[in-house]
Amino acid sequence: MTKRILVIDDEDSVREIIQISLESVAGWDTLTASSGSEGIAIAESEHFDAILLDVMMPYMDGPTTFKKLQASVATCKIPTIMVTAKAQTSEQKQLIDLGVAGVITKPCLPSDLVSSICQILNWDQPTQE
């Protein structure tokens, strides 16, 4: 069964790189959203195995988006991984304390991204045919 991932990030280039990475390295189905509110709407209407959520976004940041996802019966069980450019341990701890599954620091190599997601969510590493 192919994993389905929702990528929520306000930067077009970042969304595109993550989507291409997940699809080419892991073979996962990847949908994208350019804002927290768009991401919530997509997450509520489709099934996802995980969400990659950017921390710094205008209007509704990652932590606020995550809280709204957690407040909805339709999306509260989807594991969410925060993606941030901030590598400070204290900032990552604050995100973990919110209840996210994990934190990935960007930028990262496509293969490292897939490995990190698998490690955080305890998934088997995908094997490409």
Element string (H = helix, E = strand): EHEHEHEHEH
Overall radius of gyration: 13 Å
Largest sheet: 5 strands, parallel
Secondary structure category: alpha/beta
Oligomer: single chain
Secondary structure: number of strands: 5
Q: How many helical elements? A: 5
User: What's the CATH H-level homologous superfamily?
Assistant: Response regulator
Which whole number gives the mean pLDDT?
A: 93
The strand order across the widest sheet is 2-1-3-4-5
Give the overall shape.
Answer: globular
Question: Remind me, CATH topology?
Answer: Rossmann fold
> In terms of per-residue confidence, which ranges show pLDDT below 50 for 5 or more consecutive residues?
none
Report the helical percentage. Answer: 40-55%
User: Can you identify the CATH class?
Assistant: Alpha Beta
What would CATH call the architecture?
A: 3-Layer(aba) Sandwich
Provide the number of structural domains. 1
C-alpha end-to-end distance: 14 Å
Strand content: 15-25%
Domain Response regulatory: 4-121
Keywords: Phosphoprotein
InterPro entries: Bact_response_regulator, CheY-like_superfamily, Sig_transdc_resp-reg_receiver
Protein name: Response regulator
